[in-house]
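Hi support team,

I've been running sequence recovery on a batch of backbones for a student project. Most finish fine, but this one hangs at about 90% for roughly twenty minutes before it completes. I'm not sure whether the input is malformed or the queue is just slow. I've pasted the structure tokens below so you can try to reproduce it. Let me know if you need the job ID as well.

Thanks,
M.K.
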């Protein structure tokens, strides 16, 4: 309720004023607490979990992937950096898919409404393919890494690319969803999203190497993929409950 009241009292700035450096609103403590208050809104959690989970998976794969490819039966040696080509290709495809599909789907949904306007939740269906591809990409990498063979490297690279596809598309759609839903506090929502992605990425990479060495790749990445699948299902719940 306090956040809503803050929005209603928000100072109206011109575009030129909003671009100035040094504009301050409220005290230091208030500015520190405002991002945490955005957690009262489900959309913040949705984008936080998507972005944090995908970035955690991407960074984790980038951390342990070269270790696998430097070991038998691959022995890529100094060429392990080529593993990152998968993420680059996946990111480019994700960019292309976002450019072609995201706003197009929103426009189609808006035309179906009598008033001609699209609701913020109309952006959510565009996330479904990317979430599915990225989640299965985590599993693909993990299960291929757990079953080494002369050709298993291809599955690892493809899995990395699938996660790269998702990490390019999901934030683009999710951030626009936050802006449409909570325009006046979207900056606070972005702060929480940045905090969550940093915490998740650090946490996953902090212990994943030891976990993979002790349990193999299938179990850790199977669990990571399961968590990402749960986060993806939350998108469906949010869309159906609008």
């Amino acid at each position: 309720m306090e956040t809503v009241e803050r929005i209603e009292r928000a100072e109206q700035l011109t575009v030129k004023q909003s671009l100035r450096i040094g504009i301050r609103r409220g005290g230091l403590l208030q500015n520190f607490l405002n991002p945490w208050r955005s957690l009262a809104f489900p959309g913040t959690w949705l984008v936080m979990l998507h972005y944090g989970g995908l970035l955690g998976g991407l960074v984790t794969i980038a951390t342990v992937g070269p270790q696998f490819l430097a070991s038998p039966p691959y022995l890529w040696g100094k060429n392990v950096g080529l593993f990152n080509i998968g993420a680059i290709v996946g990111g480019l495809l994700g960019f292309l898919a976002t450019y072609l599909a995201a706003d197009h789907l929103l426009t189609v949904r808006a035309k179906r409404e009598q008033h001609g306007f699209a609701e913020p939740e109309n952006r959510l269906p565009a996330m479904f393919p990317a979430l599915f591809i990225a989640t299965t990409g985590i599993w693909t990498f993990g299960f291929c890494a757990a079953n080494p063979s002369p050709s298993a490297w291809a599955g690892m690279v493809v899995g990395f690319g699938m996660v790269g596809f998702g990490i390019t598309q999901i934030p683009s759609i999710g951030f626009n969803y936050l802006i449409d839903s909570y325009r006046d506090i979207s900056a606070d929502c972005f702060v929480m999203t940045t905090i969550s992605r940093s915490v998740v990425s650090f946490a996953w990479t902090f212990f994943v190497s030891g976990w993979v060495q002790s349990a193999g790749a299938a179990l850790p990445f199977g669990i990571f993929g399961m968590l990402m699948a749960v986060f993806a299902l939350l998108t469906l719940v949010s869309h159906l409950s609008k």
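--
Follow-up from support: It reproduced on our side and the slowdown came from queue contention, not your input. The CA atoms of residues 56 and 78 lie 25 Å apart. No action needed from you.
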